[in-house]
Inverse folding.
């Protein structure tokens, strides 16, 4: 998956889609990226929160904190105890209306593409969140996006894509009482969204 995505829905659209409260501070983003404070919905919550994607800015120059902080592979949930533990109580969804990928056209050249779901529909991407203490002693929250193997639409650009939840599974994902083993099993259920792509400006 590429490391940029748009969340251009209006606050009222997010409220209707996810049945949550959206603060007046919410702003649409056309180019959300790592280390930015971005909107997420945590399991059991009825409101929108803002967490850092991958790592807080003060850590972004620390070479020991690699790009793996942005993502977790779906397959790793069954073999990494830390991820399976997070899956119990720290699930979240990342609302977005597409994401960006770069398609190779030559050995050195790539073209940016936006990937959308249905008619630019708002979707829920599965994620996990963490709480850390920043260098100032303040609590900071980060999230990572879960990825799965790419489908035929995306595979020419990337072998991984975000794990998009279908609306039925989305409710169970956000339910505190959901069994973790059942959650893992259901993550293999395909979503019912139709994906399409189109080229965009390389300025993203």
């Amino acid at each position: 998956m590429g490391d940029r995505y748009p969340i251009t829905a209006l606050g009222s659209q997010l409220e209707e889609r996810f049945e949550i409260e959206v603060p007046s501070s919410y702003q649409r983003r056309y180019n959300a990226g790592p280390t930015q404070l971005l909107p997420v919905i945590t399991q059991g919550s009825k409101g929108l929160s803002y967490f850092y994607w991958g790592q807080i800015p003060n850590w972004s120059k620390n070479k020991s904190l690699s790009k793996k902080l942005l993502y977790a592979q779906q397959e790793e949930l069954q073999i990494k105890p830390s991820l399976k533990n997070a899956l119990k109580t720290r699930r979240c969804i990342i609302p977005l209306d597409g994401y960006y990928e770069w398609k190779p056209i030559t050995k050195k050249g790539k073209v940016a593409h936006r990937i959308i779901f249905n008619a630019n529909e708002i979707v829920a991407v599965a994620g996990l969140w963490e709480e850390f203490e920043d260098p100032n002693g303040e609590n900071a929250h980060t999230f990572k996006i879960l990825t799965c193997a790419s489908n035929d639409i995306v595979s020419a650009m990337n072998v991984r894509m975000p794990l998009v939840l279908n609306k039925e599974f989305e409710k169970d994902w956000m339910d505190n009482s959901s069994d973790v083993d059942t959650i893992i099993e259901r993550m293999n259920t395909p979503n019912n969204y139709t994906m399409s792509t189109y080229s965009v400006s390389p300025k993203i």
